[in-house]
Specification:
The protein is mainly α. Helix content is about 75%, strand content about 0%. It is elongated and about 60 Å long. It starts with a helix and ends with a helix.
Length: about 260
């Protein structure tokens, strides 16, 4: 077999291994999935009218639901990849990686299996949270088929970018608890973005924090695609953020993996 065929075969094996782990131990995935669902229900049914009025939309819970869903979907990805960091850390500390390195398998297949498995879990989690949003009244009737495809592509790209960062966080962590703490910013950053209120409605000193981070342009782009509204410069800014984080995470994770003696 060619080296490419071996790499594909070994990566598929590692992907199957990670998916089996996720199926056999679903508690972490379910716990991380409950957070965005609870936030969605909380902000829509408890704060929906007040938040909508506060951002100038009148006391309209359905309007605020349409506003908040894109941010919740991207927050779902941020929460899901925390589990990836924990999984990678477990692999590095429990000795299985040392065993893999004695076997005739492609070195990069271990990380590729984690990344592809995490992206698949992230998209599945987004679909489940999206189904809850639709059940409580979210509709995307103004979006075209092309905008739906672009929205899906953005979600996949964003999931890949955050996953590579999470893999690096897992590799530098001495244990699963540290990995979970290191990846916590991936859950907190959406709370500091335009997910729940527009940036211009925030205090002036806080607006740069919300504006100049990866979640805000991605949320604004996804919101524009799903609601059929203007995107402006947010589209290319979101893509630049995703590609930059992906490249950074890839080289960071692979360099750590190559030099780690465990």
């Amino acid at each position: 077999m060619s080296s490419l065929s071996l790499a594909v075969r070994d990566s598929a094996t590692m992907l199957r291994r990670n998916l089996l782990h996720a199926r056999r131990y679903p508690s972490m995935t379910l716990n991380l999935l409950l957070t965005p669902i609870m936030l969605l229900l909380l902000f829509v049914y408890v704060f929906g009218d007040v938040m909508s009025a506060g951002i100038g939309g009148g006391a309209d819970r359905s309007a605020y639901l349409a506003y908040v869903v894109p941010g919740i979907l991207l927050m779902t990805i941020g929460g899901t990849v925390v589990g990836t960091a924990v999984s990678v850390s477990n692999d590095m500390t429990e000795g299985i990686i040392a065993r893999f390195r004695t076997m005739a398998i492609h070195r990069g297949s271990v990380l590729i299996g984690h990344v592809v498995g995490s992206v698949l879990q992230s998209i599945l989690s987004v679909v489940l949270v999206g189904a809850v949003a639709v059940a409580v009244g979210f509709r995307s009737t103004d979006a075209t088929v092309l905008e739906w495809l672009a929205a899906f592509g953005l979600l996949v790209l964003f999931a890949m970018a955050l996953t590579w960062i999470a893999v690096g966080m897992g590799l530098i962590s001495p244990n699963a608890e540290a990995a979970s703490n290191n990846a916590l910013p991936l859950i907190l950053l959406p709370l500091l973005s335009s997910a729940f209120v527009p940036v211009d409605a925030m205090p002036g000193w806080f607006q740069p924090i919300a504006e100049y981070q990866p979640f805000t342009p991605a949320i604004e782009t996804l919101r524009g695609l799903l609601l059929g509204s203007e995107i402006g410069d947010n589209g290319w800014i979101a893509i630049v953020w995703c590609l930059g984080l992906m490249v950074l995470g890839y080289f960071w994770a692979t360099s750590l993996f190559k030099r780690d003696p465990k």
